Amino acid sequence: MKRLLRGLVLGASMLMATAQSASLPAMVVVTEDARPLHYVWQGQLQGEAPPLIDLLLQEAGIHYSQQVYPWARAYMMASSLPNVLIYSIARTPEREAQFHWVGKLLTVQYAMYALQTRQDIRARTVEDLHNYRLGVTANDVRAHWLREQGIREVSPDNRTGMDVTHNGLSNMRKLLQGRVDMVPTSAVGLRSFCLTESVDCSRFRRVMVLPFSVDLYVAASLQTPQPVVQALRGAYDRINRNGRYQRLMAPYIDGTSVALVR
Predict the structure, then answer these.
(1) The pTM is what?
(2) Geometric angle at alpha carbon 63, from 238 and 47, rounded to 5°
(3) Topology agreement, domain 26-107+214-248 and domain 109-213
């Protein structure tokens, strides 16, 4: 009898999960090419985060497709369209009401980096940053933070300030070319750029650690129905409790930071 009851309960649970999956709309998952957490290699999405996202959607019983875009486009889609899941996105007070926050991936600590040859660059405080040209990405949390510090975008009349691009890799390339003075990134992100571009990392130096760290999340667009959001959050809680999150994100849960994520 007990076996029969367990079988009935299991069968009912499977039917409920199937029914829920069939009733939930499909999701479009968007991200960017941003080593080492998620990046495209030989036409395939690689890194620690994509398998976690696959597990999250499968656990939630939601059909989905993953697309890699420049960050500005991915952010626009998640900001304006229904049923869009985006990662890795910084959770900030300004964005709190703009997305449904599903679960945390890791914490990032940023610093300002310059070329080793630019020993003339000196910055100890945020106020000192006003004197330099800084490479940032549009709709990136670092650009928002710098803007809050009173740093404006460059203009024909003012060489210093934020030099905004739509591609994170472009900032580092501009730094190499001497077109910007500094770029906000992290040690791991810098090493990733050096490997990707075959650049000697000794060419860069850390000028100052910024008083600025953020939590990176998986988030759903605001127009996503609540049953979908609840299914995603429940799935995240389960893979976090049973240790699957910890196994997949082991390189980062010790506090190691990454860059080129927004």
Answers:
(1) 0.68
(2) 65
(3) yes
Q: Which of 28, 99, 36, 25 is nearest to 67 (CA)?
A: 28
- The CATH T-level fold of domain 26-107+214-248 is D-Maltodextrin-Binding Protein; domain 2 (3.40.190)
Separation of alpha carbons 91 and 72, rounded Å? 16
Q: How far is CA 73 from CA 70, 159, 168, 193, 252, in A?
A: 6, 27, 13, 21, 26
Write down the domain spans for the chain.
26-107+214-248, 109-213
Q: Left (φ > 0), alpha (ψ -120 to 50) or beta: where does 42 sit?
A: left
Residue 126: CA count within 13 A, CB half-sphere = 12
User: Which residues face 117 on adjacent strands?
Assistant: none
Two tokens at 206? 């850390």
CA 185, 216, 22, 11 torsion-angle sign: positive
Strand partners, 208: 112
Each of the 262 residues of the chain gets a pLDDT tens digit; together they read: 444 334 433 343 333 444 454 578 999 999 998 877 888 888 889 988 999 999 999 999 999 999 999 988 999 999 999 999 999 998 988 899 999 999 999 887 889 999 999 999 999 999 999 999 999 998 888 999 999 999 999 998 889 999 999 877 899 999 999 999 999 987 767 877 888 889 999 999 999 999 988 889 999 999 999 999 999 999 999 999 999 999 998 877 654 444 433 4
CB neighbour list of residue 117: distance below 8 Å, 6 or more residues apart: 203
Decide yes or no: CATH 3.40.190.10 for domain 109-213: yes
